[in-house]
Amino acid sequence: MIEITLLGTGSPIPDPNRAGPATLVRAAGQVFLVDCGRGVLQRAAAIGVGANGLSALLLTHLHSDHIGDLGDLLITRWITTFAPDPAPLPIIGPPGTAETVEATLRAFGHDIGYRVAHHADLNEPPAVDVYEYTEGPVWDRDGVTIRVAPTDHRPVAPTIGFRVDFGSASVVLSGDTVPCAGLDELASGADALVHTVIRKDIVGNIPQQRLQDVCDYHSSVEEAAATAARAGVGTLVMTHYVPALVPGQEEQWRARAAGEFGGRIELGDDLHRVEIGEPDD
Ligand SMILES: [Zn+2]
Ligand SMILES: [Zn+2]
């Protein structure tokens, strides 16, 4: 079984009820955080997951809403890991990830210096292993495999989606993208597709060009659902709602997806959890 928890279903616009984009994927005791938007560690704490419990951080792209709490994650993991020689945190993302991580650690350079000077058992800065990929296999450990494929979020490039396989279960995470061949191929035959969505019927009619611009590099609810249908997945999990999903309007969003996709449709608030596959897998 693979367990998906929507830690943050928000967007770049601060929302009192929705953390920034972040999804937790758990399989075989391994814990993967996909993107680390605003408030991610507070949401993770709500389900008993700490920064020190992550097996890897997976980044779909380097937009601010998806990496907003990278610094908090790196520092908090560092100061809450009490092993003498903690294993580095694997961070898998598109090209540019190493530079972003390095710059983030540099931004926290004073903090790191204070803590190393103060604590006898903190001698090294946060340990990370950064891997940059645009396609191919990126993880193979104890039955869990992960591969990535390029997505299309241009002019943001490169961007990637992730596919996590364990036993007979498979989950694909799109990140931000318009419909594209890379995601179609990655999601083909998967059990579940976690897809970011925007309501182009709403955002496209806001009389503010900067907001309308958002439409041309994201998938609408209908487009995400059509991608799920083309790939033949069993479950579509929608997240990263733009504009924010208002309580009581869930069925309106669901109906738009159901027009394109006949499978199971999941959407909801932060901490919404979806199980994929049989419990024994
Ligand atoms: Zn985004
Ligand atoms: Zn984006």
Strand content: 25-35%
Q: Determine the mean pLDDT.
A: 96
According to CATH, what is the class? Answer: Alpha Beta
Roughly how much helix do the residues carry, as a percent range? Answer: 25-40%
Q: Which structural class should the secondary elements be placed in?
A: alpha/beta
- Please describe the biggest sheet, giving its number of strands, its sense, and whether it closes into a barrel: 7 strands, mixed
Number of domains: 1
How many individual helices?
10
Determine Rg (CA atoms, Å).
Answer: 18 Å
CATH fold description:
Metallo-beta-lactamase, Chain A
Ligands bound here?
Answer: zinc ion
Number of strands: 14
End-to-end Cα distance, whole Å, is 5 Å
How would you characterize this protein structure?
The chain has one domain: Metallo-beta-lactamase, Chain A, CATH 3.60.15.10. The protein has helices spanning 40-46, 64-67, 70-79, 97-107, 109-118, 181-187, 200-203, 209-212, 221-231, 250-258; strands at 2-8, 22-27, 30-34, 56-58, 89-93, 128-132, 136-141, 144-150, 160-166, 169-173, 192-198, 235-242, 264-266, 272-276. Helix 6 (181-187) packs across helix 9. Helix 6 (181-187) links the parallel strand 10 (169-173) and strand 11 (192-198). The longest helix is centred in the middle third of the chain and has 11 residues, at 97-107. It is an alpha/beta fold and 281 residues long. One zinc ion (ZN) binds next to helix 2.
